[in-house]
Write a structure and sequence with these properties.
The chain is built from five helices and three strands, in the order H-H-H-H-H-E-E-E. A three-stranded antiparallel β-sheet has the order 1-2-3, covered by helices on one side. A hairpin with a 6-residue loop joins strand 2 and strand 3. It binds zinc ion. The site of zinc ion has 8 residues, from helix 5.
Length: 122
């Protein structure tokens, strides 16, 4: 089933990393939205719910913490981990790649938070 993804060439692997690296600042911005939503009582947004979840896990999300993690996000080939889980929760959750087909580009998906990232284009 998975023969091709185990033979991903280096250029493709680097492209994936580049695509994921671009997501870290986006996840940081999203975390800030969540923090602000939560602070102003809008607790039903997706981002605010993640803030609540992080708090329940005993790791309250602050803007500073999210920014530090976004800067420290460093996926490596074969160890690609979820930018959102990292920025919001400080967890290294492995991503699963779903190969491109005629309808959509390759996607890296996180089983824990449900984030999906396109990793094959530009
Ligand atoms: Zn995740």
């Amino acid at each position: 089933m998975n023969t091709r993804s185990t033979l991903v060439d280096r250029a493709h692997a680097d492209k994936r990393l580049a695509a994921l690296l671009k997501q870290a600042p986006i996840e940081f911005a999203r975390a800030v939205y969540g923090i602000n939503d939560y602070a102003s009582g809008r607790t039903d947004t997706m981002a605010a719910r993640e803030v609540v979840r992080a708090q329940r896990q005993g790791m309250p999300l602050t803007e500073e913490r999210a920014e530090q993690r976004a800067r420290a996000y460093l996926p490596t080939v074969g160890q690609e981990h979820c930018p959102r889980c990292w920025v919001v929760y400080g967890h290294k959750t492995p991503l699963r790649f779903r190969e491109a087909d005629e309808e959509r580009p390759e996607v890296a998906a996180c089983q824990i938070c449900g984030a999906e990232y396109a990793t094959s284009s530009d």
